[in-house]
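User: What would this chain look like folded?
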Amino acid sequence: MRGVAGRQKGPRGCIDCRWRANGAQDGQRASGGAKSRVRDVILRIILAELSRADAYPSDWYGYAKNQLAHFALGITTASLLAQAHFAVFNEFAQKGATWAVVAVGYAAFEILRQGWNGRDTIEDWLFFALYGGGLPIFLFNEVAVGSPMLSINSQLVIPWFAVVMCHLAGGIVARVVTTQSNK
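Assistant: Here's the prediction, encoded as structure tokens.
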């Protein structure tokens, strides 16, 4: 089978063509340089897709994945920020200060990276900063100053997740209704 620029297409398709274009022979793996170029292309594609603003107005599944990813990244960011502060200062930062860094930092990132997109920007911020970032900050408490041990306020866990799931369910239902009404 002929591939790009008359090169033989192998079992790996386009990547095989890129390998040959970089001097690899049949059956040979890509050189470190070719691998890194392929990796760079893949990372650029992923980052371009992640930085594209999309409220998924007619795709309930895309909306759910997008908001759950914001939620997970918010949890991760707030947790890493708290752990970094503990590693440097041997105590956790005040909750309000930590949450302010997460909330303002993400708002700035979102607006600088994607611009203001109205409801999409607000929902992304809510899932990242309030729901995701707030979870490890406001539900966990330091057992003692200077101790890495944390306790969780179990009375807030179910209400916290109920708010997140109700918001997510509302967005999903709105998109399903929109999709059905457009048919």
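Residues 1-28 have pLDDT under 50 and may be disordered. If you want, I can go into more detail on any region.
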